[in-house]
Design goal:
Length: about 725
Amino acid sequence: MASHIVGYPRMGPKRELKFALESFWDGKSTADDLQKVATDLRHSIWKQMADAGIKYIPSNTFSYYDQVLDTTAMLGAVPERYNFTGGEIGFDIYFSMARGNASVPAMEMTKWFDTNYHFIVPELGPNTKFSYSSHKPVSEYKEAKALYIYNNTINREVIAELKAAGASWIQFDEPTLVMDLESHQLEAFTKAYTELESSLSGLNVLVETYFADVPPEAYKIITALKSISGFGFDLVRGTKTLDLVKSAGFPAGKYLFAGVVDGRNIWANDLASSISTLETLEAIVGKDKLVGSTSCSLMHTAVDLVNETKLDGEIKSWLAFAAQKVVEVNALGKALAGQKDEAFFSANAAAQASRKSSPRVTNEEVQKAAAALKGSDHRRATNVSARLDAQQKKLNLPILPTTTIGSFPQTMDLRRVRREYKANKISEEEYVKAIKEEISKVVKLQEELDIDVLVHGEPERNDMVEYFGEQLSGFAFTVNGWVQSYGSRCVKPPIIFGDVSRPKAMTVFWSKMAQSMTARPMKGMLTGPVTILNWSFVRNDQPRFETCYQIALAIKKEVEDLEAAGIQVIQIDEAALREGLPLRKSEQAFYLDWAVHSFRITNCGVQDTTQIHTHMCYSNFNDIIHSIINMDADVITIENSRSDEKLLSVFREGVKYGAGIGPGVYDIHSPRIPSTEEIADRINKMLAVLETNILWVNPDCGLKTRKYAEVKPALTNMVAAAKLLRTQLASTK
């Protein structure tokens, strides 16, 4: 059996690409410097796969920002505002599309699937002009070929150029095939590959699907296409695909790329179970037509476990990062070919047994408390309208109240302080003093800007999930387990290996300190249970909802402690609630039921006068708006500006929203500073569909990744726009 990897992380084992990108964007290095780092990373990745014995190695999985943006550039589908005049697209146009610039906004960014990865959304319409404007797939194939490594990706001209360069296999990633597609969408897929049939003649074509099962209708259509030589299926998340192959059969002479090694989690593969699956498939498709593979690209997992020198030894034995998964894929291929590495399989079996029997994994008290939750829906006793009235009497906020989402810029000095404290280079007293000074600076800045509801800026936090995971039981942490979220932005997901509980208060000390510095309301800032779950590497030995309920109980205790400490506004971020939505409609209601229930658990016991906020960002929300309403938060702040205000359309269509709502008025993921007039225009569009007394004014997301030189003028303009409209509204009464 041959072996194959769908894709690989491109940031580098120590985020080399991130630092090269940010240096280039800041004007501290040249394009040649950036390209040198990228070339070195590509070569090391290809060599690693080749050395591990992988037969089918992909070449065009690297990206400077996003693979969909790469395809948009390749097709020359550049929106008019970037003034692209043809030819080869360079970094100036490419990064302006991704990030915006001083004069034009960036393209929309969204999460299409159930991952934390953000895609750049193409802007296609009747007037879009296509031209072959980026030769990246071919140049990277030639680069790989020069290293004696082969394989990968699109469009007639590209295919012809790849064929001329000597490519024998081309991989097309088509994850949308796992979704519930309409008949016309499946017809479009068939038409596209039929039209490419002559161009593909003489080439082996792999259509790779992942993230869920391929529906029977789609399976029937794609496996009937003559131009396709092989089909890649996710057999980890696609739990029904094996049965589908057995019942529907598989076309003779075609290759089946079996995704048995999980590309989205960090647990070591259960090799014995995978061998059983592969043997079943081998009996159907034949030994020479079966290829062992990853379930999806490994870009969704951490790079290399070798770099984790501080991780607990027992837990480390349970794990496999991207580099280890490459080895697992090859070991499975060899085993099926009669060359089983007995020592490797024996060590794997021992690790599987260790994890199942370890007393560190199970806490009976936590399990009982979570099980008891199923008897109630945990709603607050009073409806949201009455609660908002009670809260307004206490908070006395103006109409169109202004706030920010939570974080303020994380400077190099701030990161150094946290790093030194963690390394025991400064005392706890010195650390608290430094963080207190930063909080004081952020509070004073917000007061000077005249923001109504303040935040403490989160200077003590490295990451909105990791910070909480470090203070909860059942979590483990890495030093270099970085995963790309978008562009140069990486996250380091915690590992949930056991039952979760809260040993002590996590945020009360800092929130209480911040509130003592101002007479204005200070938000207590928490990350919600669904977001902690979805932005972690989650244990796979129990249902995800059980782990989520455990986290919800831990956050509930924190909410109650914040309220007892005098914090009147508490934000429980659920930025990742939408991205966890299953791709198949038949599975969505169950997920939304337990996810929304988990959020309500966290705040069901607070007083009517305590205002509960939540925040969501960068997903398509319109199809779950009723579940968002069902969360029963007092105020929701939600991304809006970068998605071209699509959120507002749901209210134009008649959905009534009675709680407070703050659709973002400007995009914080771009360095561009919006004018007062632009923000006021956005607020006016919101007022056309939302009641004045429920509308809040805020940015799209937290300000952690921005610089103060960008934040101060942007917030100044935001507050000015809110005041301008307050004056206009007052004059019309």
